[in-house]
Amino acid sequence: MTLLYLVFLAAPIALLLVGSVGETWTNTLLPSGFTGRWYAELLADPSFRRAFFVSLKVVALVCVLNALIGLPLAYAIHAAARRGVRLAARLVSLLPIAVPELVLGFGFVLVFSSDTLPWLGTFWIVVAGHLVLTLPYTVNALVADMQQLGLPALEQAAAGLGAPFGSRFLDIVLPLLATSLTSAMLTVAALSIGEFQLSNLVSGFLSRTYPVVLLQAFYGATGFACAATVVLLVLAVLAALATALTGRAGGSMRGAT
User: Fold this and answer.
1) Which residues face 32 on adjacent strands?
2) CA-to-CA distance for 197 and 209, rounded, in angstroms?
3) Which of 6, 17, 115, 184 is deepest in the core (most CB within 10 A)?
4) How open is the CA angle 18-23-29, to the nearest 5 degrees?
């Protein structure tokens, strides 16, 4: 059953790879001919180039904002005095995952298409939407790591030696969470680069991300659409591999210490 499941997952990816270098693919199981022109056309297409760089900018900003907001928020949740407060905060932080992306997207449409906040379709609304969707992954990953590292005991020991909060945070918390934070940022990057539903609802013509433009490719040549999808697939796989390697490196470092 596991083998069949892996074949089921791998077959569409293999067909995309084959279709991206096939000359024609019409009413047949596999394409005929071999060509690299689909990738050349993809590189020359201005709409895809613009969408690609928009996605990269969105990913970069979302990762920075996740680090700036997620780390203090995770620390505040972990340092909460009462268990009930910690539980409530974690439940609230998980709401963007529990709520369907379409619901969040329609909420953005209603709020930011008003006369008071006429920002729907702007680049920063796309960034805000991706931040809402990815922040729970950063927060919960950091909180889980803080619990395993035993930060309260380390901070109490440092406080007993006279270290102020700023020194404890910079010298103890940040170094111990560096690997976890890096892994969380790579996960955020993988999620953001492939996010479609909310982006399709809130982006404008100049703020369309790569997955939004990718949908339009399937209304044209099949080979071109396959090539465009392979590019997105490669980015997601690279982010996943980087996350796995970072987690492995972090585990090795902790094992050594």
Assistant:
1) 24
2) 11
3) 184
4) 50
